[in-house]
Sequence to fold (459 residues):
Amino acid sequence: MAGFGGMSTPRHFTIVGAGLAGALLATLLAKRGWQVDVYERRGDPRVVGYAGGRSINLALAERGLHALRSADAADAVLDKAVMMRGRMVHFLDGSQQLQRYGRDDSEVIWSVSRGELNIVLIDAAEAAGARVHFDRRLDDVDFDTCMARFIDDRDGDTHAHAFTTLLGADGAGSALRHQISKHVDLGQRLESLGHSYKELEIPPTADGGFSIEPNALHIWPRGSYMCIALPNDERTFTVTLFLPNEGDPSFATVQSGADARALFQRDFADALPLIPALEHDFEHNPAGMLATLYLDRWHLDGRAVLLGDAAHAMVPFHGQGMNCAFEDCVALAAHLDANPDFADAFAAFEAERRPNAQAIQAMALENYLEMRARVDDADFLLQRALERQLAERHPQRFVPRYAMVTFRRLPYATALERGQVQRGLLVEATRGRDSLDAIDWDWLDAEVERRLPVLPVEA
Ligand SMILES: Cc1cc2nc3c(=O)[nH]c(=O)nc-3n(C[C@H](O)[C@H](O)[C@H](O)COP(=O)(O)OP(=O)(O)OC[C@H]3O[C@@H](n4cnc5c(N)ncnc54)[C@H](O)[C@@H]3O)c2cc1C
Fold:
């Protein structure tokens, strides 16, 4: 295949990190006939097993799926995914309610295993011609001579690699970001959420089935904290307990397995019998911290660029970190297609993606409050009922924000902006009401048309 713009020597890219974004980006670039080397800190997961460390499963939505389709990897991923139609809310009294995410089964999200997804993408990258080098941790970069040094953590050996340009997909703790920041002020700001998470497991039933409804994302909202559970295709659920770091209850007060059992007995009583290894999991699994990473700049001229969590790590409450990282990969590949000069391509990529990353970071933070404190609140439920009706009356204009983020691919910044207009309408129309009976539809329909232009159809 030809390289860029008919040039005789194909372009060469060095990607740092063969996680979710790195492996997908490698596939997309290698498919264009470009030379791609990927350096990954960990061992090959196909040989040594997947050393995940966090979030065993993830919600995959339309943005991520679209990116996977462009790498011909969507079918292999969906094959092992479990469909989630909506939130199954578990109330304190033990009752449950399914709140659908979309209109029907064409609007669902998918629970995928991080390890399996990563392996599908590494296979795809290699099949497309990328060379993936495992056990190579980026340690140091000399941007003047364009030499990168990697360390094999198994024996401490160092390996030097000459690069043309570095693409940083090495996650929230990015070593490349640290190296770039020695040359340019990235304007880095890390805002801790003040809450952390711990993963637990619901095993299959004795006869090998799912022990709760498989096609849902389960939520136990409890005000300032919550539990969620996502299904896995081997009939287990991964439960994530989110708690503040301080206060009561918090990871400061719930420290032992016995403390965890007492918390579950009081607040998650219907979940407790489903998690037989609660004490063990609680005491052995690490607590993961949650934070939002903001950068003012994502690249060092044409020599290096950051994407995915390395550029914009976010809290996980919209289930969009990976989806957004996958969108980054498609966008970066397109800007590299369109620009012969790396610096121009990286600048155009940053200009397109940074406002969108900031928008989904903001929405992810807002969604935490919604999930833990609003999904069981009467005002919220009334607004959601009205939202559904408006979406039916004005399908081209009034698309619930969750649907714009999850089932559409319009820019996140547009979803945030339109979501604010819509929220304003819902609050105004339901103020002082406890049902939709007396809604002034003439006024509301006219306001929707006035405030919300028709959304463009997506290709
Ligand atoms: C609890 C939790 C739940 C989540 N749930 C969802 C969800 O439901 N949906 C969703 O879309 N997103 C979710 N996310 C976010 C998602 O996990 C991330 O956004 C996504 O993993 C980002 O991909 P990435 O490739 O940028 O980084 P990563 O997946 O972190 O990959 C980085 C890779 O770089 C490698 N690496 C690191 N340092 C070096 C180095 N120095 N040299 C070489 N290699 C290196 C790592 O080993 C890794 O393979 C969740 C996150 C958390 C914490």
